[in-house]
Amino acid sequence: MIDYSKWSKEEMIWELENLKKEASQSRLAYKKSEKRFQTLFNQVTDYLLVLDPFTKPSPVIVDLNEAAWKMHASVMKTTTGNYQTNAQVLDITDFIVSKNELAEKTFRLEKAQQIGRVGFLDWDLETNKIILSDLVYEMYGLPPKTFNTPEFVSSVVYPPDLEMVSKNLEFAIQNKKSYNVEHRIRRPDGSLIWVHAMAELVVDEESGKRGLLGTIRDITMQKEARQKIRLYSKQLEKKVKERTRDMEVINRKLKESNRELDSFAYSVSHDLKAPLRAINGFARELQHLVWDRLNEEEKEYLDIVLESSVKMVHLVDDLLKLSRSGRKKPTMRKVAVRPLVKDVLEKLQDTYKGRDIKVSIANLYTVQADISLLGEVFYNLLDNAFKYTGTRDHAEISVSSSLKGDKVVFSITDNGVG
User: Most exposed among 164, 214, 316, 391, judged by the fewest C-beta atoms under 10 Å?
Assistant: First the structure.
């Protein structure tokens, strides 16, 4: 350091003039150097270098036409008092491209982690320092960079889960198994969240340094959803058990009803049919004994008694058939309906002899059914048609079938009353 306080005025003016000359020479050297470099740069169109020799030597990066260059430049004073510029230019295009790609991937990764609510952790086991992403701090309800040591585990993990978490971390550090646990975090406001933490032991091949790398994901919503599903399942299971008990009660009552129905059917069969047979028998005996001595009105009354007794016997038989068919297990097979209907008509025509009845049978589909039950259905329907056309001199009955989707619909129409 020069002490200018002892210099005279003339000495200081002389020194100032020398400094001006040196500055002028430096500017002149810079201009010459700039001109030389400019000539060189004009021959190359892929890059551009900007040089400031009056600042301390520093790298300058210029990007032109997708090419990147790095330059270290400095201005030096030679032993002859002249100035020269020294520069080193390196092509760092690949480095810049890689750097940009890394930045893009880092941005996308951070965005994906934010959307998926997935944070990361990097635990250096050599320095015992932990790096957590900002999202992890956000999950935990803490300001960023609050903790960077393993002690944070005991401060945020819900106490009942702490032993399990610590044990699994120790296993991961010893490389016995990967760290993969679900546990609760207690936030500063007292609320609890569920997280799924995964990590693996990573060892640097060159340095041998070890660390745990992993992710932390907020699974509170999934846990709450699972809890609701479990609750609904329990409620559903309870309702199923209740319904099962109800069905068992209904089945018992149904069996009791069936037993009562069997008892009733037996009573009908023996207690009702016996008197009806007696009525019919005595009426026929009277018909043989006194028919010639009866007037027309008395004969009509006796015919009514006979017909009514026969009808009552048929009704009792039908009632018995109905009670038995309700408990009979259907035997399903292919049934040609047209022959079945013809058999039913032959039986009915014997019952309704002497009437003018025209029955037309259209094309009838073959179906899967229990033949005996289907025969009873057609017998009852056709019997009603015969019965309710009794007031017609010329009765007309038609039987047809049609398709409705995957179902077969049978129709029986007549020109009777109702």
Answer: 391
- Pairing between strand 395-404 and 357-361? parallel
Cβ-in-10-Å burial (0-12, 13-18, 19+) of 37 comes to middle
The token pair at 247 is 């069905």
**Is the separation of the CB atoms in 286 and 306 below 8 Å?**
no
The CA-to-CA distance between both ends of the chain, in Å, stands at 133
Query: Is 134:157 a contact under the CB 8 Å cutoff?
Result: no
Contact 367, 335 (CB under 8 A): yes
Residue 220 tokens, joined: 């509170």
Residue 174: HSE in the Cβ half-sphere, 13 Å Cα cutoff: 7
pLDDT, tens only, 67-87: 555 555 566 666 666 666 665
Token pair of 2, please? Answer: 């020069």
Contact call for residues 360 and 399 (beta carbons, < 8 A): yes
Q: What pLDDT score does 309 carry?
A: 82
CA gap 393, 403 in Å, rounded = 33
Do 389 and 408 form a contact (C-beta atoms < 8 A)? no
Predicted confidence at residue 74, as pLDDT, reads 60
Nearest Cα to 54, choosing from 72, 35, 75? Answer: 75
- From edge to edge, which strands make up the β-sheet containing 59-64? 59-64, 67-77, 83-91
The pLDDT tens digits of the residues spanning 129-154 come to 888 888 888 888 888 887 777 777 88
How many angstroms separate the CA atoms of 394 and 389, rounded?
8
DSSP class of residue 1?
-
In angstroms, the Cα distances linking 287 to 42, 209, 279, 304, 417 are 143, 122, 12, 12, 33
Give the C-alpha separation, 379 to 382, whole Å: 5
Q: Could you report the per-residue pLDDT of 361-405, keeping only the tens digit for each?
A: 998 999 999 888 888 889 888 988 888 888 788 889 999 999 998
Phi/psi-derived region of residue 354, left when phi > 0, alpha when psi is between -120 and 50, beta in every other case: left
Rounded CA separation 414/35 (Å) = 119
* Distance in angstroms (rounded) separating the CA atoms of residues 366 and 68: 87
- Alpha-carbon span 25 to 16, nearest angstrom: 14
pLDDT over threshold 90, residue 158 = yes
Query: Average of pLDDT values for 24-46?
Result: 59
